[in-house]
Each structure stands twice: as structure tokens, then as C-alpha cells.
Amino acid sequence: MPNTRSPIDILLNLVPDSPQTVLTHLANAPNLADAKDGHGYSLLHAAASYNQIPLLRMLVQTYNVSPNIVDEDNETPLFAAENVDVAKELLGLGADAGWKNAEGFTAAMKMEGEGEFPLVAQYLREQTTSDASSSTEANALEGILPHPPPLPNGLQVNIGTMDEPEEAGAPDPEFRRRIEELAARDDFQGEEGQRQLRELVTEAVTGIRAGEEEDGRDTRRRRVE
């Protein structure tokens, strides 16, 4: 009687005990890497189910099989994971822990409902809870923190830190006295009073003494008449 089994069926049967033989066949027929049997079952589903992590990794990384490839029940290989190591590997390769099958259940929900693989279910539940929490926090911050306006072309902003400025010293008593004397003058609001006020302000801001002599001698503060 002739063998009527398809190539993918033959490879699927080799996964439990001869994963290396599967890889040898795939080297000559890479198109079978993401092939499915009559129920949508793939080599990645089988590798997950039988804990063949090296084969699982090769299928995704070398043959570009999607870690979320689905069978006829819209279930990814994560639904076939029977131990935590396989589940971790699949998630590390990009499997979606929140993926739902045709009945609307995630892998964790299905395992919990059927009472199977409790450690895997717990691990997956922790991952989906963590992802949901991170997403919620990000969304909350998104609503609170305002977006800055776009920068003009050619403008760049560099964010860094700078040292705290040293504490300012006490006000100069002499400068304070001069301000008070100037403010008490009758012509304070006049042109001359305002000119002298501007000079005092210039001294305070720039630290340059307005009374510097032109002959190059040491500078000294000018006495206000």
C-alpha cells in the first residue's frame, strides 16, 4: 500500500524524537517550515508541545516562521506550551501572550479553564498582567504630560544637568546706601536722576564700576553727589 502521508505530516511525526532530522529536511525544503497539516497544525506548534526549544528557535530565527502562526482554532504555539521554559522562549521570540483563540480565550485562560499546566498558566497570566499594567501607566502619563510643540527646522535641544549656582552674597551696603540716597533726591524722577539710576543698575548687573577713570588708574566707585 503506497504511503499517502504528506511531507508536513511526516515531519510533524519526527518532531518528538528526531528534531535534528526535521532540520536536515528543512535545509532541502525550507518551504515546509511554516507548512500546516489538515488542521492548521505547524512544526512550531509541535516543537512547542514537545519541548523542542532548539528546533523552535531555528524555525523562528532561521526560517522566519511567525511565533504567532495559528491553527484551525486560531491558536498560536503558545497554546501548546506545556512548560514554562517553552513559554519563555516563545515570548522572547515575539509570541503574543494576549492572543485569543476562536473562543476568545488567551492561552492562560484556556489552560486555567481546562486545569492543565498550572505553572505555565500562572507565568503567562503574570506576563499579560504586567503588560496591561505598563500599558495603563503609559496611557495615564500620555494624558497628563503635555507634548511639546515641534521644534523649528535646524533647532536642536540637548537635555542635561547643570550645577546649582553658588548662593548669592549679601547685598553691598554701599550700593544700597547709594540707591536710597538717589531715591530721596528731589530730581529722582527727572532726567539726571534717572540717568544715575541707570548707571547704578548697570553696575549691579554687569559688575563694572560706572566711575572707572579714563587715565587707566585703579577703578573706584563714584560717589553720588
TrEMBL record:
Domain of life of the native organism: Eukaryota
The protein depicted here goes by the name Uncharacterized protein
Q: Which Pfam families match?
A: Ank_5
Query: Region Disordered: which residues?
Result: 127-151, 184-225
Compositional bias (Polar residues) at which positions? 127-138
UniProt lists compositionally biased (Basic and acidic residues) regions at 184-201
